[in-house]
């Protein structure tokens, strides 16, 4: 599996955060462009019409996504420093927090099939898909692998996706059944990182 390449014109953290916010605003514009349908005739979810749910979701995304991507990008400064698992642990913990917040806001959006379709199209057109998260995490794992700090048998892309999926899964179950039956977020983050089995043998 090919390793995604980072944009060589690397933005500084402030520029990257601004670019992410710009893309979320672009996403909002794409959603509004086709909002000619009558929102009043759409079923309500969580006390809000689909259009209002989209607005709330995008507002949260604009606030939280740049911070989350900054955490992932900052891994690039940790290559060769500390322990790989130790570097990933706070990332996994932050990922759980991020997904809990974002999924909670996203659920009402998906109650309307027409809004869901428009959101998917807007995400695609604004380049806000999942690779925005996968690329920096993959780049970090690949760099640590070249430095001999990650097992040569590890697939950086697959491991990046597994870490993100683990965070997403814990967040989903926490929303579904509550936090009490589950490991704490700190414990879950530790399990997610350990299950990647990154250490060289």
Protein architecture, described:
It is a single chain. With 201 residues, the chain is mainly α. The protein has one domain (13-34, 45-194): Tetracycline Repressor, domain 2 (Orthogonal Bundle). 64% of the residues lie in helices and 0% in strands. The protein has seven helices and no strands. The chain has helices at residues 13-33, 50-73, 84-106, 113-125, 131-146, 156-177, 185-194. The longest helix is centred in the first third of the chain and has 24 residues, at 50-73. The protein starts with 12 loop residues before the first helix and ends in a 7-residue tail after the last helix. The model is unreliable at 1-9 and 36-47 (pLDDT under 50). It comes from Streptosporangium pseudovulgare. This is TetR family transcriptional regulator.
Concise summary:
With 201 residues, this protein is mostly helical. The chain has helices at residues 13-33, 50-73, 84-106, 113-125, 131-146, 156-177, 185-194. Helix content is 64%, strand content 0%.
